Amino acid sequence: MGGSKRAGPRPSPTGVTMLRPRASLPLAQGPVLLALWTPQGAQPPPHPQASSRGAAGTFRLSLPHVGLLPPVLGTLGGHWASPQAPPAFSPTPCGSQGRTVPRRVGPGSPAPSSASSVLSVGPAGCSQQGSPPSQAPPSQPWPTEPGPADLTPTSGSCRLLSLLPAHLSRVMALRAGEHNQEAANGLKEKVLTLDSMNPCVRRVEYAVRGPIVQRALELEQELRQGVKKPFTEVIRANIGDAQAMGQIPITFPRQVLALCVHPDLLNSPDFPEDAKRKAERILQACGGHSLGAYSVSAGVQMIREDVARYIERRDGGIPADPNNIFLSTGASDAIVTVLKLLVTGEGRTRTGVLIPIPQYPLYSAALAELNAVQVEYYLDEERAWSLDVAELRRALGQARDHCRPRALCVINPGNPTGQVQTRECIEDVIHFAFEERLFLLADEVYQDNVYAEGSQFHSFKKVLTEMGPPYAARQELASFHSISKGYMGECGFRGGYVEVVNMDSAVKQQMQKLRSVRLCPPTPGQVLLDVAVSPPAPSDPSFAQFQAERRAVLAELAAKAKLTEKVFNEAPGIRCNPVQGAMYSFPRVQLPPRAVQRAQELGLAPDMFFCLRLLEETGICVVPGSGFGQREGTYHFRMTILPPMEKLRPLLEKLSQFHSKFTREYS
Fold this sequence. Notes:
Elements: E1 9-11, E2 17-19, E3 32-37, E4 50-53, E5 58-63, H1 69-78, E6 88-89, E7 104-105, E8 118-123, H2 176-184, H3 199-202, H4 211-224, E9 235-236, H5 251-261, H6 273-285, H7 301-314, E10 325-328, H8 330-342, E11 351-357, H9 362-369, E12 373-378, H10 389-399, E13 404-411, H11 423-435, E14 439-443, H12 460-466, H13 471-474, E15 477-482, E16 496-501, H14 505-517, H15 523-533, H16 543-570, E17 574-575, E18 584-585, E19 588-589, H17 593-601, H18 606-618, E20 620-621, E21 623-624, E22 637-640, H19 645-665
Helix pairs in contact: 5-6, 5-15, 7-15, 8-9, 16-19, 17-18, 18-19
Subunit structure: Homodimer.
Pathway: Amino-acid degradation; L-alanine degradation via transaminase pathway; pyruvate from L-alanine: step 1/1
Family: Belongs to the class-I pyridoxal-phosphate-dependent aminotransferase family. Alanine aminotransferase subfamily.
């Protein structure tokens, strides 16, 4: 990573030089084990997570997260070396072969000696064979990220660190030394510590905004500061944020929103009359005729009625009840609300939720936070990521040995896989859910994003109703939609809804109660949702422009989907299924065995290793498939198709070229 800045030392609360913790190392599976060498007979500092006392002069410490490594090196060292002689930190490989990780010695500190405290870092379970302090290598700066030497082939076996759970961002900080100092001063320890906090929160992971994205942000900052890189910009193709990728907002929704936010503009001749009428109608339905007032917790009643009419039109006249519709802060908020209603039990009675693999990490994150069980069913990559009921039965049968499955989630069109389910498949899923008494969650936020010839979006609500009794009257369903995707791409305004079907009336009241705790969804998001579900009519002056802009966005997305599939499938070692819908490709990449081995030595998932190298050498930010789930032994990445066409083609070609170079390097 030529040109990248090193992290400098920072003073600790005790006056000892500490390392600045980083928040961007990519993570993989496995704990971090520290072996702390101390002079013979000396006592290492106490620590609540100390796992065992090793051989003479060795103290073994297991950390729950690699993000704790720099602060722990600083705090532990700082409390058993004097401020005049900051400790030498010397992480060493596990085994006698291979390169030693550079260490940092505090400014003004003496060269390591037998009295110096040295830390050896290696994967848990490895036999630590690090050198004692007297054999430590010359002082070097601690690397802020894996440098070129870390990320290129090398001989040897188990080395460096095993980085903990995949894509968990390092917002945690362990301050064991600080706690010890506080105790020595007679002060109370903090009430909220890593050990005392909610353990479910610690288990939450969200790959889409994980460490590799944090590194991309750092690279952007370094470019602004004039640091030389092999690229001139970072292209964040990691997330479905259309407007961040350059998509121009649709005019009519923004006009209505502007009028609602600043009603004085209703007198301006610069706004069309239909936009003014819609804004006035919305304001009349708001408390105090102002968008700044709270709405009712389920959302503005008039907007819920407009959503119901939209669903009825979409589903060919099948009625929708506004009282079954709850507006939300994006679809994610509504999904978590329904999951909260479903999750119960302990031990073998804990709620299990079937989710697709690959999946959108919201589901795994929410289930971890709620202490529910993630039940994985695999989509069939060989059949364009189709959903197979036989696979659902396998997953359900295995899950019943250790939990109580109560819900089944289907993402259609798929994220990250881009498939569009057929009507027959949806019918099969409904049959299965009904027979197995599973609540259905239909994530349908990409229902406007269908591109492939022969593909068509079918809502679960429509198919369920048309199946007739007993399914239509008894199968429980929650269907989700959002303004963040589709053609509007208004991610930041956080608008969405959930429609519940056949939900018990008493449970629906509990859902209303749960929504009321959050007061109400953001009213600007509700306004934009209303425009999405009730756009200009053919007789309105804004109709022609609105339709033209909408068609242009969707047509360009369709062209990008085809281009992405074509370029990737022309590249050796990359295979991409058709992007039938949504906003992403999820290509499979072949990684040489030596690259896989090197990734394992670095404690990285192999596709994270690939994506990190890609980012550092090309500026392209994509998310490794391990963050979404994938079959063992396969490697993928998710890339959005949202960049402008003039950037997308070079991006695809550069990515394909990098894969060829990477393959040659490790072959």
